[in-house]
Automatic annotation (TrEMBL):
The keyword DNA-binding does not apply. InterPro entries: Phos_transporter. GO terms for biological process: phosphate ion transmembrane transport. It is found in: Membrane. Keywords: Membrane, Phosphate transport, Transmembrane, Transmembrane helix, Transport. One of its GO terms (cellular component) is membrane. It comes from Pannonibacter phragmitetus. This is Phosphate transporter. Pfam families: PHO4. It is a multi-pass membrane protein. The chain crosses the membrane at residues 31-52, 58-80, 92-114, 134-155, 167-187, 193-215, 227-248, 260-278, 299-317, 345-364, 384-401, 466-495. GO terms for molecular function: phosphate transmembrane transporter activity.
Length: 496
């Protein structure tokens, strides 16, 4: 009679051991990403040590290289979600494929075009001549890296996609003000960034909604959807490639000397070539498709993947300076012996930024990719395409007007714009005539909303995510500035 009791006790002990092993395995998996990140940061510090000698200045450059690697990891974890999130949410790409494409395109953009991006981190945010000496300038840049990295890391942890550009700008401004007073801050630049808080996401949202309404009207709401798609999808592909070509010429290759008219002409040429190439492709893809909305959406999958890849390339070209700009500024001071107004980023510094962004995306990016692509509002290839196109157009318009904008703000604003447009279409209008596939002109009306509870159930944008992201946007610059000032005071005290 005692044997079953003994067996039962043994089973319980084995179950406890199994639970402990599972818990240990889970904890170990959670430590893999931070562990790899720490190894990468240490390798970058050792790489910097190979290029500098001893002394205080050399030590500061080694610390800056490690902090630049930390900032690059955070940019990859937070910022790249805006490029790949819509494609993953629309199921045009799997998460693994999105991570691979983004990592390659981010690295290529940073290494091939990142050098040509005009970098205002060292002299555009603060006036270097107002600082006491080169040592104070290097201390400001070091403090900015710490503050911006910590803030972006915190935003990633709470699940809020923020602007890394605004984080590093706010951190430099705060550290510069703490070092030399508020007069050292370039308030004109900060004022332009404040304007972009409102204008860029709103404009991106409006354009995404307009594009979605247009695409639906010329394809989805036509009696013969496939015939309409054969005409319009190549046109939209040409528009996308033309807009992105203009974007890349203006933002990633400013040294080409082409201003907006020349960049638009180059984009037009690319658009025409793409349209001609896309026509036979779309015709083959559409062959045998049923006259359904889902068939039309499938035709947008390839354009969406191309748009996400191009956005990642452009992002790597532009935002790598947010991580390595201060590192390059410190390297420039050490090399020249005085404060610099023009920063030339060494190759080894660029490699730190490029690899760091890609590694941060692979290790920590999936969470925010799911948030941007799936949790804010439901996306399909058509909606995601409209978000990508609106993002590129908004950045081009802002560049022509001289407004500093954040790709993060524009892309997330586009996602919200698509969601709110769909809400307006289904809730405010209340009815929508949906043309049936047989082309007979018959339609069905959506049931009108009868009470507030039903209206809430039909919300297509999650308000909790909207408020969290909005709050993170509003406080990014002041929070990063306060952190930058605090870090500078602490470092000044520690270093005497």
């Amino acid at each position: 009679m005692k044997k079953p009791e003994t067996q039962s006790a043994l089973d319980k002990d084995l179950d406890r051991i199994g639970y402990i092993e599972d818990a240990a395995g889970t904890a170990a998996r959670r430590l893999v990403a931070p562990g790899l990140s720490f190894v990468f940061i240490m390798v970058c510090a050792l790489a910097a040590w190979q290029f500098v000698g001893g002394g205080v200045s050399g030590s500061m450059l080694i610390a800056a290289a490690a902090l630049g690697a930390y900032m690059a990891l955070n940019i990859g974890a937070n910022d790249v979600a805006n490029n790949m999130g819509p494609a993953v949410g629309a199921r045009a790409l799997s998460l693994g494929a999105a991570l691979a494409i983004a990592a390659v395109c981010e690295t290529l953009g940073a290494l091939l075009a990142g050098r040509e991006v005009v970098n205002t981190i060292s002299s555009g945010i603060i006036h270097p001549q107002d600082l006491a000496n080169p040592h104070a300038f290097m201390l400001v840049m070091l403090s900015a890296l710490v503050a911006a990295g910590v803030w972006v890391n915190l935003a990633t942890w709470i699940g809020a996609p923020v602007s890394t550009t605004q984080a590093i700008v706010g951190a430099v401004a705060g550290a510069g003000a703490a070092a030399a007073g508020i007069a050292a801050v370039n308030w004109t630049t900060l004022g332009g960034i404040a304007v972009s808080w409102v204008t860029s996401p709103v404009l991106g949202g409006i354009l995404a909604a307009v594009f979605l309404a247009f695409v639906r009207n010329v394809t989805i709401y036509q009696p013969d959807k496939i015939a309409a798609s054969r005409v319009w999808v190549p046109v939209l592909i040409g528009a996308m490639t033309g807009v992105f070509s203009t974007y890349l010429v203006m933002k990633a290759f400013p040294a080409s000397g082409l201003r907006l008219p020349g960049a638009m002409l180059a984009g037009l040429v690319v658009a025409i070539v793409s349209w001609l190439l896309a026509r036979p492709y779309v015709r083959r893809q559409a062959r045998g498709m049923e006259n359904r909305n889902q068939s039309v959406r499938r035709l947008f999958s390839l354009p969406l993947v191309c748009a996400a890849a191009l956005m990642s390339f452009a992002h790597g070209a532009n935002d790598v300076a947010n991580a390595v700009g201060p590192v390059a500024a410190i390297a420039g001071v050490i090399r020249s012996g005085h404060m610099v107004t023009q920063v030339e980023i060494p190759l080894w510094v660029m490699i730190i930024g490029a690899i760091g962004i890609s590694l941060g995306l692979v290790l920590f990016g999936p969470r925010l990719i799911h948030l941007v692509g799936q949790q804010i509002t439901k996306l399909n290839p058509i909606r995601a395409y409209c978000v990508a196109l609106a993002t590129a157009v908004t950045v081009i318009l802002a560049s022509a007007l001289g407004l500093p904008v954040s790709t993060t703000h524009v892309a997330v604003g586009g996602v919200f714009g698509v969601g709110f447009f769909r809400e307006w279409e289904t809730q405010r209008v209340g009815t929508r005539l949906s043309v049936m596939a047989d082309g007979a002109g018959k339609g069905k009306r959506l049931r009108p909303i009868r009470n507030r509870e039903e209206q809430k159930r039909r919300f297509l944008v999650r308000r909790a995510h909207f408020m969290t992201i909005l709050a993170a946007w509003v406080v990014t610059v002041p929070a990063a500035a306060l952190l930058g000032a605090g870090v500078l005071v602490a470092l000044s005290f520690l270093l005497g």
